[in-house]
From TrEMBL:
Gene3D superfamilies: 3.30.70.330, 6.10.250.1170. Residues 368-377, 414-433 have a biased composition (Pro residues). Residues 81-152, 154-235 form the RRM domain. Residues 1-60, 335-388, 404-463 are annotated as: Disordered. PANTHER family: RNA RECOGNITION MOTIF-CONTAINING. It comes from Steinernema hermaphroditum. Residues 41-57, 352-367 have a biased composition (Gly residues). GO terms for molecular function: RNA binding. The lineage of its organism: Eukaryota, Metazoa, Ecdysozoa, Nematoda, Chromadorea. Residues 404-413 have a biased composition (Low complexity). The keyword Transcription regulation does not apply. This is RRM domain-containing protein. PROSITE patterns: RRM.
Length: 463
């Protein structure tokens, strides 16, 4: 009897394993076949760019509103639809189990270990619950069948979730490590987020990759700099609990159950030590509250320090940006100054006039040589009689006209009008500036004509 009870008590441990390895191998083979036909990469977990990655790149890009509002796919034959069937005989076949569970829904997996238990995977959670409620306790080959939900081997418990993280956001974030079956941010009875969540992957390697990556590195969900923590999900059977038939029979159990529920009388042995146990419970509760208060205060201080440090970090970044901009402005100003200096020092034939040629045409023969006239024998040459007569007429007109001029106002002494025009030679140069002597008196100032040896070159030549 004890042997049978121990065997029955081992069913709970078998729910955790049994066909897990074989199932994972089959799913891995089937998954690889699907990927081979569809052209997708085999799911394996890990951010994109690392070995075995099967999801999106975790680059910090925010999720769009369309992505978050999109309805998540409702998957069938997930790990939550997997049932553990125990207390079977060794001669139970797969056909018999499928006939028993087929009325409640489709079956995608039926694994019999040959050691008194089996695993089945239904299409939906509702169908699995219906089959569990109906078949649990039924007799098969003279034994009552025990049906429980199998432990999900690819589920993780997430902690330190920000309140702004929804189920959809959690789903998309952890899809970077592999195919996700379900992602839930747990809330309390008032709908307030608790900061804890559950993520169930399709395969164990994906869950293990997410577990390793988040433990070794800093994984953030939002602008909140508080990193997430993750641990394997330890399932708790809060629906079925511990049934009497699941407890193994033993002498210690029988001895403990010799006395039933009661309130011991005052001043009895049980009462005195019961009080001491309650005092210890109270001390533990107070210690936990004090420790939680200290931890909460440490969290608050760390958040304040982080906020101040972040402001300092932003200020430092602004200072560095301003310094870079100032250096760029100085560099541009230096380039402009160099261009201006190079332009002022450019090649010039007349440096005294800022590079601008303000003189007449270049003279032939060098300085002191009169400008060349027309060739000999051509009109306008020095022996042309018309030119000589024209010069005499101009001189006579000049002598007769100058004494009769009367200027109403004194002209600007700095202005020198050009001399009389000579046919074929252009205007004569203006008189030179000089002292107050008679040789330097200007004709237009009302004085007598100059009495110097001022004669045209032709006159001198004729003498």
């Amino acid at each position: 009897m004890q042997k049978n009870n121990r065997k029955g008590g081992d069913d709970k441990d078998k729910r955790r394993g049994g066909g897990d390895d074989r199932r994972d191998n089959r799913s891995r083979r089937s998954g690889n076949n699907r990927d081979h036909h569809t052209g997708n990469r085999p799911g394996g977990g890990g951010p994109k760019g690392t070995p075995g990655s099967g999801g999106l790149l975790l680059s910090g890009a925010p999720l769009t509103e369309d992505q978050l509002m999109m309805e998540l796919p409702k998957k069938k034959f997930t790990g939550r639809c997997r049932l553990f069937v125990g207390n079977l005989t060794n001669d139970t076949t797969e056909v018999e189990l499928k006939e028993m569970f087929a009325p409640h829904g489709d079956i995608s997996e039926c694994y019999i270990s040959g050691k008194g238990f089996a695993f089945l995977r239904m299409d939906t959670r509702a169908h699995a619950e219906s089959a569990k409620e109906t078949i649990d306790g039924k007799t098969l080959h003279g034994r009552p069948v025990r049906v429980r939900f199998a432990v999900h081997g690819a589920a993780l418990k997430i902690k330190e979730l920000p309140t702004s993280v929804s189920n959809e956001m959690l789903y998309h974030a952890f899809s970077a490590f592999g195919e996700v079956e379900r992602a839930v941010h747990i809330v309390d009875e008032k709908g307030k987020p608790t900061g804890e969540g559950i993520v169930e992957f399709e395969r164990k390697p994906s869950a293990q990759e997410a577990l390793n990556q988040i433990r070794e590195r800093v994984f953030l969900m939002t602008a909140n700099s508080r990193p997430l923590t993750v641990e394997p999900l330890e399932p708790r059977d809060e629906d079925d609990g511990l049934a009497e038939r699941m407890i193994p029979r033993s002498p210690a159990l029988m001895k403990e159950r010799e006395i039933g529920p009661r309130f011991p009388p005052s001043n009895s042995f049980e009462y005195i030590y019961g009080k001491k146990w309650k005092e210890l419970y109270e001390m533990e509760r107070k210690k936990r509250e004090e420790l939680e208060a200290e931890l909460s205060e440490a969290r608050r201080r760390l958040e304040l320090d982080m906020e101040v440090a972040y402001q300092d970090y932003q200020a430092q970044m602004l200072r560095e940006d301003l310094q870079r901009r100032q250096q760029e402005l100085e560099r541009l100003e230096e380039q402009r100054r160099m261009r201006a200096q190079n332009g002022s020092r450019g090649p010039s034939s007349f440096p005294g006039f800022g590079g601008i040629d303000r003189s007449g045409p270049p003279m032939q023969g060098g300085p002191g040589v009169p400008p060349p006239g027309p060739p000999q024998g051509m009109p306008g040459g020095p022996n042309d009689p018309n030119i000589v007569q024209g010069v005499h007429k101009l001189l006579q007109m000049f002598k007769n006209d100058v004494p009769n001029r009367q200027f109403q106002q004194q002209p600007n002494p700095g202005f020198f009008p050009p001399g009389p025009s000579v046919p074929g030679r252009g205007p004569m140069p203006p008189p030179l500036m000089g002292g107050p002597g008679p040789a330097f008196q200007m004709p237009f100032q009302g004085g007598p004509p100059p009495q110097g040896d001022f004669r045209p070159p032709e006159k001198r030549m004729r003498r």
